[in-house]
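Entry for the shared binder. Reason: the reviewer on the internal report wants the predicted structure included alongside the sequence.
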Amino acid sequence: MSGAAKVSTQSTGERFRDAPPAVIPSQRNASDAYRVTEDQVHRARIVVARNAEDSDDCRQLLDMLGLLASTPDQPPPVCR
């Protein structure tokens, strides 16, 4: 391999034409523009944990992204 990444030339419509409706998120309006679901928070935490160098790095990243609550009984800042 030459190390070059393959670039998709499909348009957005072509990529999602055969995707099930649950895969394509619905359009958001102004009232829920800042709303974050528990599922989104969970998936974001998983991505951070998988890509963090160590536990301290993970904690710092979660805190920077607002995904870490100051106490266990409070929601994280992104959910407030």
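Summary line for the report: Residues 35-80 form one domain.
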